[in-house]
Amino acid sequence: ATEAIVLVAAWSSVNETFNGNGVALAITLARYFKRWSLWSKDIIILIPPDSRTGTQAWVDAYHDAHDSNNVASLPLKSGALQGAIAIDYAMDQRFDGIHIIYDGTNGQLPNLDLINSIVNIGGGQMGMQTAIQGMQHHNDSYRDRLMTMLRGMLKQGLGICAGPHSSFIPYHVDAVTLQPYGEGWHDEMAMGRVIEGTFRSLNNLLEHLHQSFFFYLLMQRDRFVSIGTYLPSAMLLAANFTIMAIFLWVKSGQPAAQVQMPVVAAFEKPAPAKSTFSKAPGTPPAINSTERDLSLPLGIVAGCHAASVIPLFVLSNVPATFLPSSLAMFCIFSAVLPFIISYLLPVCFTQRTQHFQLTKSLSLLVLGMALATLATLNFSLAFLVGMLASPLTFITPCKNSISKYSVVALLNAVAPPVVVYPTTHLAGSSVAEFLQQASFGWNVWAVYTPVVIWCIWWPAWLVAMTNILSGTSDDAEIFTTEKK
């Protein structure tokens, strides 16, 4: 079958306003394109009711990946989709430039050549400004480049839908949304010429875009950071947890007083030789190892990960009106739960320092492996979670109550449920809207950000809090001695 290009114009724009000019322009372009005989690919005009569910349902049905109980099958299809352009033209005035929205679900991005083509067509041929990540007045300064990159990382880390184009990217269809902004002298004719030039560029392709990057961080419309430059930073954060896990595993197999043994042995008088092959004077004794009791540490880590199903299920299935109150209640539950666990553990079990070491080792090992794997799929999410979870590596049982509860307060400040609130502020949305999008993304777009937050990050935080509250001054002394 002939390959196809899709032009999307939803009735409702990304900002939930009437996309009147966008729909009118799409219909006009359909009539205009029909007059030309140069098209080597089919052109599909898609006008869904909104920018989220309608496009997703159509794309799923086009690829036969839909739920037949809720979405009807398509009676007519074309060939493989080569690309898609969505029009988000809700303003009723002339505009100054075009905002290119390219973020996909789960941090997926379109091929960079598609963005470069639109930038060259709009800026080179039409004399039109182009912007990304809402930076409409980018002056190519260090601050603006950093702000653009951080905005892109935040949106990529959240992984939620940014526009109608986001539904196409999981099916390896390069797509973007074009959104006019500002007040200028450009009108619908200029917008149509940009779309026409982009469609002609896609029409000339003999195969899918693949020569350029799929993993990148844009600092400006024509400046980017490639994966080979930024990926090591996330890998180093993941390695931080893994290295500490290995260190604690080795230490857990050594006797508690073994650290001082080589120092004492160096000043002891050597024992008389019993054979001709005796050790040289001053040689430290062989390092002994103790058997590791893994039952309790494995139970604690497994129990914390099993408890993570609670926030994942509740915040993904409760009605939208109860989402903010559910998050607030879970914040309280999350803050109280470590105190309950730390109170019950000494009552039910006999804890040793080895248990604290093994519990932390196993927890950090799971966290490190998960983030290392995630970094290759969604760098921004792995990097942000790794940065916020980095205190878990260095926190050990404290010697006095003041230090203990100071550390507890610090960990509560970076707890996953608490971090949701400043994140929504930085993303420019309310808590209710953010939770609703996250729930919708989990159920419709299969966004795995909630899994990373509640099933990977939160259990590691819970284990660290439990270790801090359960540890005694003797455990703190041993931890400090071993580090020395």
What does this structure look like?
The chain crosses the membrane at residues 227-250, 294-315, 327-345, 365-390, 402-422, 442-464. With 484 residues, the protein is α/β, with parallel strands linked by helices. It has 2 domains: 3-221, Aminopeptidase (3-Layer(aba) Sandwich); 231-253 and 295-475, no CATH class. The protein is 54% helix and 10% strand. It contains 18 helices and 8 strands. The protein has helices at 20-34, 53-62, 112-125, 142-158, 188-203, 227-252, 261-265, 295-307, 309-317, 323-348, 353-375, 379-389, 391-394, 401-413, 416-426, 431-445, 449-470, 473-483; strands at 4-8, 42-46, 81-87, 95-101, 129-132, 174-186, 216-220, 223-226. The strands form 2 sheets. Strands 2-1-3-6-4-5 form a 6-stranded mixed β-sheet, with helices on one face. The protein has a two-stranded antiparallel sheet with strand order 7-8. α10 (323-348) runs parallel beside α17. The chain is elongated, with a radius of gyration of 29 Å. The relative contact order is 0.11.
Task: Summarize the structure in short.
The chain has 484 residues and is an alpha/beta fold. It is built from 18 helices and 8 strands.
Overall CATH architecture of the largest domain: 3-Layer(aba) Sandwich
Please state the oligomeric state of the protein chains shown.
Answer: single chain
Order of helices and strands: EHEHEEHEHEHEEHHHHHHHHHHHHH
The end-to-end span amounts to: 69 Å
- If you consult CATH, what is the topology of the largest domain? Aminopeptidase
Strand order, sheet with most strands: 2-1-3-6-4-5
Main sheet: strands, sense, barrel: 6 strands, mixed
Could you estimate the helical fraction of the residues in percent? 40-55%
Indicate how many domains the architecture comprises: 2
